[in-house]
Amino acid sequence: MDALMETPEATLAAISRATGLSEPTVHRYLGSLRRHGLVSRTAAGTYSLGLRLFELGYSALLGQPPAVVARPHLESLRDQFGETVVMAENEGTRLTLIAAAESLHGVSKGAKVGEPDFWHSTSLGKAILAELDPKRARVILEESQPTRFTSRTMTDIDEILASLGRVRANGFAMDDEESEVGLRCVGAAVRDAQGVPRFAISVSGPAYRITLDAVPEIATAIKAAASELSGALGCLGPAA
Fold first, then answer.
1. pTM summary value
2. Are both 41 and 108 inside the same structural domain?
3. Domain for residue 227, yes or no?
4. In this structure, what CATH number is given to the domain that contains residue 19?
5. 129-175 pLDDT, tens per residue?
6. Which terminus of the chain is more solvent-facing, meaning fewer CB atoms within 10 Å of its CB: N or C?
7. What residues form DSSP beta bridges with 96?
């Protein structure tokens, strides 16, 4: 099966070479796998992975909480940048932190799983809002009643919605001292198995460490991690 993952539609001879097994042995194994739907055979006589694998993988995925699936991705980002990395979930009109990998530094942004976060001022909130239908984003903002936290906080809903176009184009959002003076965060949306932007992840830390010059590198890494995590959650592409 590993050989077929590396070379889709492989011949019996190719699989034999890749596995180091004799062709009769490979043929016997393939016959058993085909009976269970794990391997399929084309009219041309080549072999590929069967759709039954997708069914099994999807069932296994549904049994794993998103926070558990996300853990290695969050820790990888934390180890790369040394800063706090969190994951939040869109729960209708509530944005809730569901996973966190704490910073390696003594001075850092603390994160408590289960706490609500803000839609209008955080990179987590803006990353998700940018991927939602604008009407839905407006409803969320209206219900959350944007509050000013610093001189940089946007509270006008039309202004916030207009800024989301740039977030969508860039593929990431930034909290540039909008939630707290001296704090800077970079976040990206994560899609679930239905392609819905249900989650977001962010890297956050003091602005003197997460400088504006450092943002592009962090943004590149977090967009890649968000894409990988979306795939790990079963997303095959954006929702229609």
1. 0.73
2. no
3. yes
4. 1.10.10.10
5. 999 999 999 999 999 999 999 999 999 999 999 999 999 999 999 99
6. C
7. 89, 116
